[in-house]
Amino acid sequence: MDKLPINNAQLDTLVLEWMDEIRQFILKEIKNPLTIKTKSNARDLVTNLDRTVEQMYIAKIKQLNPAARILSEEGFGDEVNNLDGPVWIIDPIDGTMNFVKQHDEYASMLAYFYDGEAQGAWIMDVVKNEVVHGGPTQGVRLNKATMEEPTENKLDQSIISFSGTHLLYDHYQYQNIARMALGYRVYGSAGISFIRLLKGQCGGFTSVLKPWDFAAGLVLCRSLGLQVETLDGQPLDMLSSNVILASQKQVMADIKMLTNTSSNL
Amino acid sequence: MDKLPINNAQLDTLVLEWMDEIRQFILKEIKNPLTIKTKSNARDLVTNLDRTVEQMYIAKIKQLNPAARILSEEGFGDEVNNLDGPVWIIDPIDGTMNFVKQHDEYASMLAYFYDGEAQGAWIMDVVKNEVVHGGPTQGVRLNKATMEEPTENKLDQSIISFSGTHLLYDHYQYQNIARMALGYRVYGSAGISFIRLLKGQCGGFTSVLKPWDFAAGLVLCRSLGLQVETLDGQPLDMLSSNVILASQKQVMADIKMLTNTSSNL
């Protein structure tokens, strides 16, 4: 299958242009009334803008590389069962409840793989106009500034970001982890949580995530020296839902120790 | 006791100047290493900057009105046992864990009362450079823009902001409230939570708060048509700790119905 006609640095520049256009489109359109529908349950929201933005990304990707396959949240992409050749994973608007109710703290995310190898990833905090972008060979930047691996902390010196629902119902020992942390936060967006982790504002982030929720975060975290694993001992599957823990190394060790110890009781 | 030599509109202009100076001071000083100490427990942090900023506010207030009494978080104010005459309530830096670990999502808050009557209140999101300010006679503004009372929603259509600790340990039926809400968030700062409530981004905020944590929020919420009550049926005491619920009217009714019903089971 076709490689892209441009290298990863050129691709990064191009995708940043796409995202700037998408950002301006979202901020203009959000002033109009949104059409809001529910998906799997009353809290799983989708708007007309989620769908339109996904179609805009897909058109740009297919124009760049008609052979690319696209795994995307709102279903306008392809049926993707493997990572052979060029594959894009897209979340047009992540944190849709924040988007709908707050017009703040939502993200737009893209990740690009070739034959399963990460080539680049992008997470945009739309309102703050911040994009964290990069990959394994090119490092990670926040807009134009190079990011460094955050300073290591232990769990009890770290703020951990959680999925609200799974914390509330105490799945995966989340309440136990929260008690051992210095503090915890619930932001309502995986993209915003990954950005805070990458900046070192949080020491870890855990949630049950679909590929479009975690692909860009996984690529950027690993590129910056942070760890991404499953919390339930299942193999990490890039093409399905996972209990993702992304964190600094020491936080990962502390949480794994805590959850392994507790499950043996 | 002495009234101020200026009216509330002039006072508002003056305090906004103070806050702009404080903001620039904090953003400059935060680049230096902080001296961090713990207070009541390992998660109750105070820094040298909390203390310095409080002293800066107190010097400005005493210069304006030497008769003013000051109730403040870090203890440089006065012993205040009533609201007679001119009284200021100050939280120099609210959300100290966010301040220390994230350098983001912390607030600075002031409220001014005369003989128990609110005259003005100010909450500044330091990093975003946003100040919500106003009072019962002058309305509420976000920086220079007049704010309107947020559109009413029911609890199950609202995002509620909680104190992380009390939610985690399920005090005051918080987990029950969170389950009935559309969604919930934990931000780690009362000031940031009040701003989101005032903007309509959240439908309610509840936490156990000291006077300096809730005084400015209470004044601004009530001035904008939002409700502030206790959640545990105790009389609201401006001079001590309260289980505060600040919310839109319908959210207040829904939560009171829920917590009364549940406590009768």
TrEMBL record, chains A, B:
InterPro entries: Inositol_monoP_metal-BS, Inositol_monophosphatase-like
Needed co-factor(s): Mg(2+)
GO annotation terms (biological process): inositol metabolic process; signal transduction
Residue sites binding Mg(2+) 1 per the record: E73, D91, D94, D213
Gene3D superfamilies per record: 3.40.190.80, Fructose-1,6-Bisphosphatase, subunit A, domain 1 (3.30.540.10)
Molecular function per GO: inositol monophosphate 1-phosphatase activity; metal ion binding
Residue sites binding Mg(2+) 2 per the record: I93
Keyword Hydrolase attached: yes
Keywords annotated in UniProt: Hydrolase, Magnesium, Metal-binding
Superkingdom classification of source: Bacteria
Matching Pfam families: Inositol_P
Signal sequence coordinates: none
Protein name per its UniProtKB record: Inositol monophosphatase family protein
Organism: Weissella koreensis
Organism ancestry: Bacteria, Bacillati, Bacillota, Bacilli, Lactobacillales
